[in-house]
TrEMBL record:
<keyword id="KW-0342">GTP-binding</keyword>
<feature type="domain" description="RapZ C-terminal">
    <location>
        <begin position="179"/>
        <end position="303"/>
    </location>
</feature>
<dbReference type="InterPro" id="IPR053931">
    <property type="entry name" value="RapZ_C"/>
</dbReference>
<keyword id="KW-0547">Nucleotide-binding</keyword>
<dbReference type="InterPro" id="IPR005337">
    <property type="entry name" value="RapZ-like"/>
</dbReference>
<dbReference type="Pfam" id="PF03668">
    <property type="entry name" value="RapZ-like_N"/>
</dbReference>
<feature type="binding site">
    <location>
        <begin position="72"/>
        <end position="75"/>
    </location>
    <ligand>
        <name>GTP</name>
    </ligand>
</feature>
<feature type="binding site">
    <location>
        <begin position="23"/>
        <end position="30"/>
    </location>
    <ligand>
        <name>ATP</name>
    </ligand>
</feature>
<dbReference type="InterPro" id="IPR027417">
    <property type="entry name" value="P-loop_NTPase"/>
</dbReference>
<dbReference type="InterPro" id="IPR053930">
    <property type="entry name" value="RapZ-like_N"/>
</dbReference>
<protein>
    <submittedName>
        <fullName>UPF0042 nucleotide-binding protein</fullName>
    </submittedName>
</protein>
<dbReference type="Pfam" id="PF22740">
    <property type="entry name" value="PapZ_C"/>
</dbReference>
<feature type="domain" description="RapZ-like N-terminal">
    <location>
        <begin position="16"/>
        <end position="172"/>
    </location>
</feature>
<keyword id="KW-0067">ATP-binding</keyword>
<dbReference type="GO" id="GO:0005524">
    <property type="term" value="F:ATP binding"/>
</dbReference>
<dbReference type="GO" id="GO:0005525">
    <property type="term" value="F:GTP binding"/>
</dbReference>
Length: 311
C-alpha cells in the first residue's frame, strides 16, 4: 500500500518588517517607495488590497524579512478591508504605515503640471465622472481609517529630495515603541498637517533683524549664542520640555506609534530650528522616560525644502 506523502506544516517567517505606504494620490508615494527600495527593501507598487495576505504568505516562504508595499484607494471600497487585514498580520509581523498627505491646492497644482488623471476621477456616484477636487475628497474619506494609525508626512511644501531623506531617517528608528518627531516650520507656509502638538514661538526675539544673523539658521553657532542669552527663549524651551515630558508616558500608554511635535516661528529658519535642536538634545539623553521605547527624530521643513525639487 502506497503511503501518503507527509505534508510539512507551514512555518511562518516571524517578525517580518512590513511597511505599508499609502496616502493621497500626488503626495509622493512613488518617491517614498523608491527610498525604501534604495534601502534594500523588497518593494511592490499598487498592490490590490485582497492580494496583500497572499503576497506576505509568499514572502514568508522566501524568508523575506523586509518589504514595502504601496497601496492606494484606486480600487475604492476594498480599502475598507485593509485595517482588519493589518490587524491579522500584526499577530506575526511588525507593521508600519507611512501616510503621505498634501493640501488640496498643492495636489491640484501637481496634477495640473503632470497632466495625470486622478485614480478616482471617474467614480462620482452622481454623474459617473468626478472632478479632481471631488476625487481627492473621496480619497481622503476612504483612507481616513489608515491615516489615524499611521506615521503621517505632509509633503505640501516638501521637495522630493527632502522626502527621501525623511524616509531614510524613519528607517533608522527602533522597530517597536514610540517615535517622536521634533519638526521646525514657518507659519508663513502654514502649519504641517501631520503635527500632533504645535508650539508657536513667534513671540520670541527674532535673529532675522540682525543683518549678520539673517542668512544663518538655528543650526549655526552665532544664532545659537544669540538665542541662548535671551531669558524668554530659555523659559520657552523649559516650558515645552516640561509639557512634552509630562505627557509622553500617556502617549505611550495610549499605544501611539508616532508623535509629531511641531515648533513654528515666522520663517522656520532661526528660532524654531534652534528649539528643535535643543529639544532633541535634551530628550535624546534622558533616562527617566523609558527612552528605550522612544526614538527621537528631527525635521526642519523649511530648511529641508531647499533647493526645491518637484515631487
Amino acid at each position: 500500500m502506497r503511503m501518503p506523502i507527509p505534508i510539512k506544516p507551514k512555518v511562518a517567517c516571524s517578525n517580518m518588517q512590513i511597511n505599508l505606504i499609502t496616502g493621497i494620490s500626488g503626495s509622493g508615494k512613488s518617491v517614498a517607495l523608491r527610498a525604501f527600495e534604495d534601502a534594500g527593501y523588497d518593494c511592490v507598487d499598487n498592490l490590490p488590497v485582497p492580494l496583500l495576505e497572499n503576497l506576505i504568505s509568499t514572502l514568508e516562504k522566501e524568508k523575506c524579512d523586509r518589504v514595502a508595499v504601496a497601496i492606494d484607494a484606486r480600487r475604492g471600497e476594498s480599502i475598507a478591508d485593509l485595517p482588519l487585514i493589518l490587524e491579522q498580520l500584526r499577530r506575526s509581523h511588525e507593521i508600519r504605515i507611512v501616510f503621505l498627505n498634501a493640501d488640496t491646492n498643492t495636489l491640484v497644482q501637481r496634477f495640473s503640471e503632470t497632466r495625470r488623471r486622478h485614480p478616482l476621477s471617474g467614480t462620482s456616484e452622481q454623474s459617473g465622472a468626478a472632478t479632481l477636487i471631488e476625487a481627492i475628497d473621496k480619497e481622503r474619506s476612504l483612507l481616513e481609517p489608515l491615516r489615524a494609525q499611521a506615521h503621517s508626512i505632509d509633503t505640501s511644501n516638501l521637495p522630493a529630495h527632502a522626502l527621501r531623506s525623511w524616509i531614510q531617517d524613519l528607517l533608522k528608528d527602533k522597530p517597536l515603541g514610540l517615535t517622536v518627531v521634533f519638526e521646525s516650520f514657518g507659519f508663513k507656509k502654514g502649519v504641517p498637517s501631520d503635527a500632533d502638538l504645535v508650539f508657536d514661538v513667534r513671540c520670541l526675539p527674532n535673529p532675522h533683524y540682525d543683518k549678520a544673523l539673517r542668512p544663518l539658521t538655528g543650526n549655526d553657532a552665532p544664532v545659537q549664542a544669540f538665542l541662548e542669552k535671551i531669558p524668554e527663549v530659555q523659559s520657552m524651551e523649559v516650558d515645552i520640555i516640561h509639557f512634552v515630558e509630562k505627557w509622553l508616558p500617556h502617549y505611550i500608554a495610549d499605544g501611539r506609534s508616532y508623535l509629531t511635535v511641531a515648533i513654528g516661528c515666522t520663517g522656520g529658519q532661526h528660532r524654531s530650528v534652534y528649539l528643535v535642536g535643543q529639544l532633541n538634545k535634551y530628550f535624546s539623553v534622558q533616562k527617566n522616560l523609558a527612552t528605550s521605547q522612544i526614538n527621537f527624530l528631527t525635521r526642519h521643513r523649511e530648511l529641508d525644502s531647499i533647493p526645491a525639487v518637484a515631487l
